[in-house]
Structure formats: structure tokens, C-alpha cells
Amino acid sequence: MPVSAKPDVNAALCPSRLVLEHVTSRWGVLVLAALLERTHRFSELRRAIGGVSEKMLTQTLQTLERDGFVHRDAHPVIPPRVDYSLTDLGREAAEQVWALARWSERSVGAVEEARRTYDEARS
After folding, report:
1. What is the distance, to the nearest Å, from the Cα of residue 4 to the centroid of all Cα atoms in its chain?
2. CA-CA distance, 71 to 55, in Å (whole number)?
3. Gap between the terminal Cα atoms of the chain
4. pLDDT, position 3
5. What phi and psi, each to the nearest 5 degrees, are found at residue 82?
């Protein structure tokens, strides 16, 4: 997609698709949501986000930092201390995806019922 073209998420090569992928990935949503509450250290984030591996958390934080959503603040102390927080852009994204995450929590019962109905109709 040419740089001058207007972004269109439906266009196959639109760079907005990658942004959407990063902020709506399982770990991306959960990292953004945790940081929406407050600044966290790596170990705090790992404890707050159940099931995320150290490798996936590291990759997710790096991706979100590269995209401008997360700020990494490395303090020159021993032992090393690194804090993660949201940028203004990250806060905006986090508020959007967190609303979707909360909706999914409220709707999970209806979705599970729809799945049962679908499965029963096909068995």
C-alpha cells in the first residue's frame, strides 16, 4: 500500500492490519489492560496476566513498544529495574480493547449457549 494512500483495514496490504493484530492479540489485549491500571514491572505483569510465558510477554512488550503503545523505562540500578507504562497512544488503544474484553466477559454465557445450540443442531 503506498504511503500516501488512505488506510483501509479491508485492503490486503494495509499496514493498519498489523496494528490491529498487535493490539487485539490475546497477550496484547491483556498487557494493554494491565497497564491501563498502572505502571508495572515485568514480573508484576507476568503475575497479573495468567498463563503468559516469559518469552511471549517479552515479545508482546517489545512489539507494543515498537508500535508506540508502551513505554519501557530502564532504571540504572542494581539489580536492574524496568518499568512499563502506556503512552498516550497506548492508553487510547487500551481503552478500546479493554471495552471489547469486558464485553466478552459479559457475553460469554450467551456465546456458550449459542455454541451448544449450534452443536446440538448438527449432531
Report:
1. 28
2. 18
3. 45
4. 55
5. -125, 130
Cell of 56: 511471549
The set of cell numbers assigned to 58 is 517479552
Cell digits for 107?
Answer: 457475553
Q: 60 and 31 in contact (C-beta within 8 Å)?
A: yes
Question: Of 88, 87, 94, which Cα lies nearest the Cα of 71?
Answer: 87
CA 108 to chain centroid, in Å, comes to 19
Helices of type H across the chain: 16-24, 26-37, 42-48, 54-66, 88-122
Q: How many CB atoms lie within 10 A of CB 6?
A: 8
Tens place of pLDDT for every residue, the chain, 123 residues?
A: 555 578 888 899 899 999 999 999 999 999 999 999 999 999 999 999 999 999 999 999 999 999 999 999 999 999 889 999 999 999 999 999 999 999 999 999 999 999 999 999 999
Q: Rounded to an integer, what distance in angstroms lies between the CA atom of residue 18 and that of residue 21?
A: 5
C-alpha grid cell, residue 29 = 489485549
pLDDT of the residue at 4: 59
